[in-house]
Amino acid sequence: MKVIIENIKKSYSNRFTLDIGKLELAEGRIYGILGPNGSGKTTLLRLISGLEKPDNGKISYGSEFEAPSGEVAFLLQNSYLFDFSVLENVLLGTGGKSTDDQKLAMDALREIGMEKYANVRASTLSGGEAQKVAIARTLVRKRRLVLLDEPTASVDIYSMRQVEDFIKKFNKNHNATVVISTHNPSQAARIADEVVIMWNGCIIERGSPESVFSSPCREETRQFLENWRI
Amino acid sequence: MNEIVNSFREAFNLIFSFDAGVYGIIWLTLTVTVSSTAIASVIAVPAGILIGSYDFYGKRLLVRFIHAFMGLPPVVAGLVVYIFLSRNGPLGSLGLIFTPTAMVIAQVIIIIPIITGLSIAAVRLKSKVVKENCKGLGLGKRQTFRLLLHECRYPIFSAILTGYGRAISEVGAVTLVGGNIQYHTRVMTTTIMLETRRGNYDQALAIGIVLISLSFIINSILYRLQEGK
Ligand SMILES: Nc1ncnc2c1ncn2[C@@H]1O[C@H](COP(=O)(O)OP(=O)(O)OP(=O)(O)O)[C@@H](O)[C@H]1O
Ligand SMILES: [Mg+2]
Asked: Considering the entire predicted model, what is its pTM?
């Protein structure tokens, strides 16, 4: 799904203002949002998801101005598993309980190596395990727009690759637009078609990972990437 | 001191030699309190969840009112119900005064604010994260409500138990609107009052012991049910 963000402003009292002139997200591409803590990544994703309303400006989704709820999935930074089994949690993402849904759910769990936990109570999982289940729940069925807020922040390196492969596969299979916020430039380099650098509520730079990372045009981007190796 | 010990001994003896009248009183107590708790819960739990998880104009004032009514003296609730249901009252023609129905109505009024207020508190902390995660999955309002109820079921359950405790221990309102009529509206608390006044301490104490045991048994049963779920 194509998303166009135009002249969006969102303020939290005097503390913070997100201010974005224009941002177009093309269908079927993966976008990596990078930026330091408090730069507005979560705020941007919440606005796109419809969880937050902008003070000014508009966001269009294809031909509509409301995020079509069944076609968008948003993995929150503070994702939450319900007090059911792992499988039942993932089934909440499919929207049904038929055998087809069960199969979809098990497939999603397999992608992130959690299939043997299907019947485990979600409340007994470790932080990273729970996060992986939340990812599976978000990606369990076709969506045209997926927003992932730091999906792998608590996930180990091996699982991180599994999750990234899952995201790429999902993007390919469903031609979905995917927006991921991350602190990890390597991750953005691995999966994003395009990176968007945020700073103090503004987008200061965007482009292919190769060009932005090898020759950033902004001093702030250079500063943000300074301590990043490999 | 000796007298107290004797009273207790006598009370325990009485428990095993209750006549049909006493069983009638116990049965009426149970039906009245269970009915009023069930009716109040059906109204108060959804109301509490909705009030606790949505922002709307006047919410703070409403919550303050509910909190004030949580401490409503039962006898005042009884008085209001009495005025409405008494022969000359606006609803007098229904002929409900001095019936078990009137007692249920009074108890429902007493415990609705309690269950609502405690349900609001129960969902307050979790409502935001649950609602946002539901929205993130594109779930509808109904399912979001169901999941919120599920996630907050333990504190909501204890809200209902608190309401039940209020209903079964209440005496002022049921005396007023029920009239403590033998074989008709006499319940355990009003029996205790009556027997104590007559000087039948053993009888009063015996009923008191049964009342406490019943409370305990019902709480245990409900806890079981909750854990089984
Ligand atoms: N509900 C809110 N009320 C007030 N201020 C807020 C609120 N939400 C976010 N902020 C502020 O807005 C700024 C941007 O927050 P945001 O969550 O978008 O940052 P972020 O880029 O996602 O950071 P992080 O990398 O830590 O997740 C922060 O300074 C934050 O304190
Ligand atoms: Mg964030």
From this structure: 0.89
